[in-house]
Amino acid sequence: MSVDQRVRELLSDAADGVRAVPDPSGRLRARQRRARRRRVTAAGLGLVAVIAIGGWAGLPAGPGHGEGGGVSDFDRMQQWAERLRVSPVRGGLADADPGYVQELARLVLGHQRAGAFRITAEVTEVNVLFLDDIGDVRVAFVAFHRAVPDPTTQWINASAWFMAPRGAAASELADPRAEMGTGDGLSPFEVTGNFGTVDLDSAAAIALVPDGCVIETAALPALDDWTPAQTGSYLVRTRATERPEWWRAVCDGVVREETAARQILPTTAPTDEQVDAAVAGARGGIDRDAARFAMGVGESLAYGSGPLTVVWGGRIEDPQPGDNVDYDDPATMVAYPAARGGWQVSVGTWSTGQPVEGEYIGGGEAWLSWDPTTPSAIVPVRLDDSDSFLVVTPPGTSEVRSVAGGRTIDTAAVTDAAAVVRGAGTADVVLEALDAAGTVIGTVPAPADRPTDHHTAVGW
Asked: What transmembrane ranges does the database entry give (predicted)?
């Protein structure tokens, strides 16, 4: 989803803060996925990032009114999200002062109806789902129940995080200036990371599931010893308690979803030595500042799975009209070993053309069964939810061709070791690298539209 990130002073005694970005079910279906981009902002000299990742792609349809006459996975997921909305308030302050919770909900609703938040549609109710003091900040998460579903996305609930100084009055926490990020929807497994200021004593990662569900955790790399969180249906990790791990939601004894834990990122950018190692075999034109920033962002995705490698750097030419993707910007591709085998690849751009000071936009991800870091590898990534693939090519490639059923779909000339070809949405697409004589020198299957390694759909 397109949620602007901006750095602003949130606490009088703290440095710049970073907006958290709820992103429920960003990859559920094409109609929900289009134009949902993750944005990350560099704060000061340090690198502070928030990654929001959603994933219900590929869930089976059930009975009801979805595709083929069944309840769609999206509708079923929303039913679980509604169960979360009406769940008891979580957090250490939830039971301490019910009057505070009611006042906070009333004030947030009043500000929303006055048009103070990005969600401006008619809202019938605000529910406080999380409230606690973490370090020197007070954090709240709320849901907005829409009067009617959003006409574009069909979400019935929206959401937002708020942050104010520890012990803040309800009026201060509900103030629009305390709003940290608004989500177009509400997922049944809400996760946010790096919530707080650059003061790491206040930074945290938080997860919530509906009442009756439990969050379980397992350490990387094994992911074979799942332990229920002591707090049950919610989890808070701080710098003192975080570890490289995955989280999963278990409801009624069924594993509903798994995701890589949100990392509380370090406030320092990668060192020159780390950048040197990461870009050693990169193709295209590498901008070191762009690579450094992309490494910091990618590190939160890899989070203990393995070393991060910069695969490619260059400029993505604007895909074909109708793709709903408006790239013409510098980009960087990174890869790392996936937690459960294979490789995860991610590409991002900078909309302003300023790799460090501008906005990083997550442009596409793919899981590959082959090693994308070898010089001879063909590395395809679908751009957002467009019909196009960015394909990084091996040496000697002059043209990339997409083929399905023996029929050529699209061709594109290679520039700076990459090309963009159309073909997504077509069954059994094969991507071919051709030399100057038109000889095929390499072929790979297009990456499947499947949940990414760091967020695995199981089934709500």
From this structure: 40-59
CA quadruple 63, 69, 71, 73: dihedral sign: positive
What are the pLDDT digits (tens) for 73-95? 889 999 999 999 999 999 999 88
Report how far residue 451's alpha carbon sits from residue 460's, in angstroms, rounded to the nearest whole number. 14
Report, as an integer, the average pLDDT of 331-342. 87
User: Which amino acid, 362?
Assistant: G
Contact at 8 Å (CB) between 319 and 280?
no
Q: Name residue 43's beta-bridge partners.
A: 46
**Prior bond of 221 cis (ω within 30°):** yes
Q: How far apart are CA 43 and CA 418, in angstroms?
A: 31
d(C-alpha 295, C-alpha 299), whole Å = 6
* 241 touches 205 (CB < 8 A): no
Nearest partner of 78 among 168, 167, 172, 159, judged by Cα: 159
pLDDT at residue 19 in the model? 35
Contact, 402 vs 425, CB < 8 A?
Answer: no
Which tokens is 73 given?
């996975």
Phi, psi (deg, nearest 5) at residue 160 = -160, 150
Confirm if 308 and 294 have CB atoms less than 8 A apart. Answer: no
What predicted TM-score, i.e. pTM, was given to this entire model? 0.71
Q: Which of 49-53, 363-367, 427-431 is predicted most confidently?
A: 427-431
Q: Can you tell me the distance from the alpha carbon of 79 to that of 58, in angstroms, rounded to the nearest whole number?
A: 18
Q: What is the average pLDDT across 18-29?
A: 34
For the chain, the residue count is: 460
User: Tens digits of per-residue pLDDT, 123-135?
Assistant: 999 999 999 999 8
Task: Count CA atoms closer than 13 A to 115's CA, side-chain side.
Answer: 0
pLDDT in tens, 360-373: 566 788 989 999 99
In whole angstroms, give the CA distance from residue 24 to residue 40. Answer: 17
What pLDDT shows up at residue 303?
62
For every residue of 225-246, DSSP letters joined together read: --EE-TTSSEEEEETTT--SEE
